[in-house]
Amino acid sequence: MQADPAYYGPLQYSPLWLWCGAALLALVAGWFVFVFATTRPDTKPGRTHTALTDLPALKAAYLQRINDVEEDAAAGRLTARAAHQELSLLLRGFVRDATGVDATRMTQQDLARHPLPAAAAVVAVLYPAEFGPEPLPHVGTSAARASEAVRAWT
Asked: How far apart are CA 66 and CA 103, in angstroms?
């Protein structure tokens, strides 16, 4: 019996699709090799790791800024609540700059769960002054606690 002219046999795939698939697989494998090769820790002997920041200079800068907030509050340029909020922000900024942990976006409970106990303790003291009702603690006392936390940082 003759083949019915209305039906066609299955078409074969072009060899180009095979090569495109193989090239795509090779690109993915190459990407994984590149990522693993460039992100592994450096294990060459004789190399020493340096600190990311100059901690003494960072401490001095933040201590000066804390002192500036205390002076602004004493001179009446900042309210007590605004001064406490600024002190909290400065302490959190110091933690971020010293450790790389973005403490500016953390709550006091987040800080307490994270291994940042000195910062968590001072922020816990600053919380009532930032958000609580009047009367507020003295700005000088809060600034002294924040300064002590910065000085004690290792």
From this structure: 17
What is the C-alpha separation between 17 and 23, in angstroms, rounded? 10
Task: Using only the alpha carbons of the chain, give its radius of gyration.
Answer: 30
CA distances, 43 to each of 38, 46, 52, 127, 142 (Å): 13, 9, 18, 44, 44
Residue written as token pair 């809060």: 142
Q: How many angstroms separate the CA atoms of 66 and 140, rounded? A: 10
Instruction: Note the pLDDT tens digit of each residue in 90-107.
Output: 998 998 888 888 888 888
CA 141, 142, 144, 149 dihedral sign is positive
Reading the block at residue 68, the tokens are 């500036």
The model's pTM is: 0.63
Per the structure block, which two tokens stand in for 16?
């180009």
How far is the C-alpha of 80 from the C-alpha of 100, rounded, in Å?
29
- Contact between 137 and 128 under an 8 Å Cβ cutoff? The reply is yes
Q: What is the pLDDT of residues 108-151, one digit of tens each?
A: 788 888 777 778 888 888 877 777 777 888 899 999 999 998 99
